[in-house]
Structure formats: structure tokens, C-alpha cells
Amino acid sequence: MTHPVEISFTDSLPDDLRERGGRLAFLIEGERGAPRGLPGLARAAVMRAIASPAFAKLKPGEAMELAFPAGMAADAIQLVSLPRDADVAAARKAGGQIGGRMAKGQVTVFAGRHRRAADVALGIALRGYDFSAYKSAPDGVGADAPTEMMPQAVSAQGQPDSARLDDAQAPVIGEPPADTPAEAPKPERASVTFVAADPEALARSARDAAAVAEGVFFTRDLVNEPANVLTTSDFADRLKAMETLGLEVEVLEEDELERLGMRALLGVGQGSESPTKVVVMRWQGGGEEAPLALVGKGVVFDTGGISIKPAAGMEEMTMDMGGAGVVAGVMRTLALRKAKANVVGLVGLVENMPDGRAQRPGDIVRSMKGDTIEVNNTDAEGRLVLADVLWYAQERFKPSAVIDLATLTGAIIIALGHDKAGVFVNDDGLAKALLAAADAEGEGAWRMPLAPSYDELIKSRLADVKNTGGRPAGSITAAQFLQRFIRKGTPWAHIDIAGVALPPGETPLAPKGASGWGVMTLDRLVRDRYERREDAQKG
């Protein structure tokens, strides 16, 4: 697994600032003077830069860079505009400015007493992500070990170094956990030091950011992995390994899925050599309350099946397990930070391939619920996966609410582009809480409509329902289909992440590739809506 950069906190540096190598980043809170400790020429250059019209035009979170400052060993000084009253998004963007340029050297961030320093640290960690498992180093050895040598689990103690903060010098996000194989070559890594007025307080406030970053990285890794590595079995093994964190993890194999009647799910994978599986992850941190259920679509590769996709761009269908990846990342985060909530994560893992045994357009299958489904397009397979797993989640766990995530439709990209996920919700309270969480974490989301009139588009002549209504309102009819598998009275949200899971370019908090969208939003939702409060326990 890719691990976030090591970040430590201190109130002073052991060496003269003139001798400090690497990169120096200063959080500039408006029109304040140049940072202390800079030698004359460098100080003069910094003061001139801060007073310049170019710096004045910077938006909160943006930065200006001075390369090879005179009289200093540093490679660059980065001046980050971050007013005292900056919001969370600007602070994380500021961190992204630093993290996106830090490469593999030493970075020193001068944070002073800035109240958003912890968010800057998280931004650095998130933007510093680099999936390099399959790139060869100059000596011919991979930067990280691929396939068999890829780390599959985490600390046997259930609390990796990245989540421990014992003192002011402790890292927020540190070295890979203890279970990383000894034979795996360790890549060169950047190291970040925050110089702050109260490093212990900053370290404490940043503690949970370690768990969030680990969860986001886990999701990004899963989405970035090629399908010849991340098979359904490998995916299940990686989730099973999270038992070392304290999660209860159960893998349901095909014979059990058949016994349960999950023929909609099984039909999707019957043309693949990879076995279909359902993985159940349970975090029981909230007493006896009914759990929140998170359900993810985990199609490890989607050819479209017999309704085969065009060849152009099909290589990106390794990301069609993005919903399952988000669920896995959230469960990892909750376990790492010991969340006081009950959450169950369920993912349906399957591969959609064309084969002599593959499901055909026109086939009719019976779901676990009992509804019959006419499969008029085998490339509308994600909703078949989710239908059975959603019903199973409700039957077994009687959840207080259900949220599913899926890279479900191209139609949501047409509607919302790559900036926002589409959110379909049957409960206004859940909708408000979910959208507020997304807004607080800076992850774009937009509520889309649900209405009985759209059911007319998915009526079948031969079965109870058909799996697609064609191009009109494509993302809405997919949500209407899923709503058939939600029990009356159960709060439910469907999040279509097709446009945000793998954006076409880099973002302020991620390089080009998988974004990890949703881990921060759902962790925030759990904190704000489902987590037990200490004061409530005492009362």
C-alpha cells in the first residue's frame, strides 16, 4: 500500500535556517512581515515578493516560489497566502500547493500559530500521493514492490505508526506499518517538519487526519491498480487483511451467494474466471445501536459483457470498483481512528467479461429480494450487483440508514461533469447531512431527483423491471432501479461517483489518477450524525 508522507511537529529547528536544505514553506497571513531567521539577501527578496502585486493577486491557498535563495542551502522558498480567517478548503489547498512540489526531499513548513495548520498538513499528505508501484527505479528495481511483494495488510497491533502521536515530534503520517514485507524495497520518501508555536496541540488536532489520509490512500491505490493484479480474490484478501485493525471481515463465496439467492449479482460475473464475492466489514464502536450500512459496487473490470464497450478508453474500466474502494477506505479510516459508531461496509466484487457462459441481453434473472429483472443491456451491470447486496445488507443488519456508492452511469458525467458526484436520496434529513458533510470536506456533490414517473422508463414487458431505460435520464432511472431494493421507511442515499472517482486531470489535493472522493465525506458524516458523543454517554 502507498503510505502518506511522514509529518512531524516541533517548536524549533536544530540547525541554522541558512543551513536548512530542501524546501522552506511559510504561511503568510496577509500583510505581515517576512519570516524570522532569513539571512539578509533572502529576507529582502521575500519581503519584496510579499509586497508585490503578484502576491497580492494570489487567492487564499495559492503560493509564490523563490528558487535558490541567496545565502541559503535551501532549494526554494515557498510563500503561501493563507489569511488568518481562511476556511478549511483554502487551508487544504495551501497544503496541496506544498505537497504537489515537495518531490522526495526535506520540506519545512513554518506555521506559527495559524489556526488552520492541521488542515494544511492534511493537504500536504493528500497531494503528496504518488502511485509508483509499477514504475522502475534507475537501478531497475520497482519503486514499490508490485504483485506478490505488494503490502497487503497493516500493523499487527491494529494502530500503525501513522495513527500514533505520542509527543510533539511524533509523525502525523509516518513510515509504512509493521506488516510491510521486509524484502519489499522502500522508496525514497519526502519528510515534512512543521515548525509551530504549540507543536503538541497541533499534533493532537492533526491526529485523526492520519486515519483519513490512510483511508484516502487505500481507496486511491485500489482504484489505480490494474485488473490483472486487483482480481476479485486479491481485492477480498486486501480487505480481509484489515482484521488486524479491529474490523470483523467476512468473505461470502459463490456457493453461499447462490444459497442466498443473489442471482442478479452472480449473473454479472458468470462470464469471468474470477469468482464473484461479497465482502462484509464490520466496525462495532457504538454500542448496541443499529449500524449505518455502506454498500459499494466492486466491478474490478468492466468490458460491458456481451453489450461490449468501445475499445477506446476501456482501459479506464479498472476504476469500475471505485464505490467498493471508497467503502473500504472509509472502513479503514473508522478503524484507525477508533470511531465510536457502528458501521458495516459491504462490497460486491465481480468481473464483467464476454464469454460463452456470459449473461446475454434478454436474459431474465431473479434477485435476492424476489423481483425478476430483464437484462436488456449487460453493460448496465452495476445496478444488478448493488440490488442484491443492498437487499442482503438490510435483511441481515437492519441498518439505521443505507448509503451506496458506485461508478454507475456515464449519464452523471454528462449532467455534472467531473466536479460533483450525483446524490439521490429518499430522506431529506439524510440528504441535508450528507451534502453538508461533502461541503465541509470540499468534495463536490449535488442532489438529483427521484420520482415515480421515471419508473415508467424501466418497465419490462416480460419481467418485474428491466435494468436500463435507455439514454433519457440515465442516471435517474439507475437510481430508481436501486430504490426498488430499499425497504420502505429505510433512509437511503445512492451516490453516483462515475465523474469524480477518476477525474481527467490533477486536482488541488490529488495528482492525476484516482481521487479517493467520498472517504472524507462519509467519515465526516459518521462523525456528525452517527458517532456517539462522550457527553451523551455520561448523561
CATH class of the largest domain: Alpha Beta
For the report, how would you describe the main beta sheet? 8 strands, mixed
Shape: elongated
Low-confidence blocks of residues: 140-186, 535-539
CATH architecture of the largest domain: 3-Layer(aba) Sandwich
Helix content: 25-40%
CATH level-4 homologous superfamily of the largest domain: Zn peptidases
End-to-end separation: 42 Å
Strand tally, please?
17
Compute the CA-based radius of gyration: 24 Å
Helix count equals 16
Mean pLDDT over all positions: 89
| Major beta sheet, strand line-up | 7-8-10-9-13-17-14-15
Q: What structural class is derived from the secondary structure elements? A: alpha/beta
CATH topology group of the largest domain? Aminopeptidase
Number of domains: 2
Q: Can you describe what's shown?
A:
The C terminus is likely disordered. The protein is of the alpha/beta class and 539 residues long. The protein has an eight-stranded mixed β-sheet, sandwiched between helices. The protein folds into two domains: 200 residues, Leucine Aminopeptidase, subunit E, domain 1 (3-Layer(aba) Sandwich); 321 residues, Aminopeptidase (3-Layer(aba) Sandwich). It starts with 5 loop residues before the first strand and ends with a helix. The longest helix has 18 residues. Helices cover 30% and strands 18% of the residues. Strand 11 and strand 12 form a beta hairpin. The protein is elongated, with a radius of gyration of 24 Å. The protein is built from 16 helices and 17 strands.
